[in-house]
Amino acid sequence: VETMYDDAPETSEPAKEPASGAAEEPSAAPTAAQPDEGDPLSLPPHGADVFVGGVPRTATSDQIRDWASKIGEVHSVTLVPDVTDPTQNRGYGFVVFTTRDSATAALAQLHSTELPDHPGFKVRVQPSQSKHRLFLGGLPNSLTQAELRAVLEPALRGLEGVELMMSRENPESNRGFAFLDMYNAAAAKAARAVLSAPDFRVGGRGVTVDFAEPSARGPGADRSAAAKPAPSRNVFVGGLPAGAGEDALREAFARFGAVDRVHVPRPRDGEPASKFGFVTFAEREAATAAVEAGDEVEVAGEHVTIGYMMQPGAFMGGNMMMMGGGGG
Predict the structure, then answer these.
(1) Residue ranges making up the domain that contains 83
(2) Do 165 and 122 fall into the same domain?
(3) Closest CA to 94 of 108, 81, 80
(4) Run means of pLDDT, 10 residues per run, the chain, 328 residues
């Protein structure tokens, strides 16, 4: 199985997948926060949630629920509030259905349709991947998948799958880490707490555990030429007007969410000012909203080009590696 770890050294304690707060491997989709109260198995499974963008800022959760309910039963709706005006939302949020089938149907039937109470606003519906997958490291290299499952199943409620990464050179040995698929984000959170306990052991060893970042190279990923790279918190901004600095960038993009940092590099030799910059948001959802806004975004009064960055500071052939996006 090809994964992002195929070139990792075979060790009992490999490098972990980056946590969501790090400068990360892009995720497959915007990530919805799921409730973690009570029994995780009483909540909807992973894959039952969708991201909604282009939402009118005056729309309410009840209006979104009514609109989505024609597809199937809705468990919950979350619209991210505008911190500057609590009576409005930021233009995006999440709808959690009770079943995966309803979420799949919503992607096909609700995308780019209008809200009844807001004619002219076509809401975008995209897949949303909850944090239901865990990275488990520090495993003995001699452990088999059956042995690992036998240890985990009695301890973890909602365990759906175990993927122990095996050595390419020695099929009888594993690479010291595995991925666990849980029923939903709440089950993953509970499992993470169990596995992090000081007295939890696998083969006599303590283990390392964290949420796994979805990877475009992971099992089941679409490797076709048409497959689109996934969003990240990092946004490339091109076509900056002369004199537009970091303060102008921060001011233009703050409406989409909290901005961690902005950067406008020094201009190239012979150029009076840099024509591009970078914005890193605190949350991927804010970056998604900014890129979706496309040519609606202006910096210092001029339209700019926006796209997700593949990696912060990565270049290819002299051009920044970016994906998606829109612009004027």
Answers:
(1) 42-127
(2) no
(3) 80
(4) 34 36 38 59 94 94 97 95 89 94 95 92 86 90 94 96 89 90 95 95 90 51 36 81 88 88 80 83 82 79 78 37 43
